[in-house]
Amino acid sequence: MIEAKGHGGQVQFDGQYVTITRKGFLARATVGKGEKRLHISQITAVQWKPAGAFVNGFIQFTVPGGTERRSAFGSQTSSAAHDENSIVFTKQQQAEFEQLRTALDQSIAAQHAPRIPTAPSTSVADELTKLAALRDQGVLSPTEFEQQKSRMLGQ
Predict the structure, then answer these.
(1) What is the span of the domain harbouring residue 128?
(2) Would the pTM of this model clear 0.85, i.e. be above it?
(3) Is the per-residue pLDDT at 74 higher than 80?
């Protein structure tokens, strides 16, 4: 479990779910207290602004159907502070959020990676042996055996 505590909230990631938790006065004054859980498959993008010497940074999660607004120049962080899918952090808290971001990027990439089909558990030779046994037992006629054999060999 990765946990990062920011300014006005914290984020936890357990490999499957991102949980945003807000407590206290600052949470009540910005987006409200409570908890929000997002499954990794719901997150389509992670916006990142690193903290600077004089400004805070933020991490923001984009979800389908979410209402994002474009911030005016110089007000990205203050806009993020009022977004329920964002957590603002200071320069001292940034290292924890960088670890979180790396883990999320890897999990999101894994969600979108092509699935490689598994190889069949039995070989064509094994299947032909089974068909021959069925023919020898009288379950398949010689004609049915030849049809199945041709189908399996792609003839």
Answers:
(1) 124-153
(2) no
(3) no
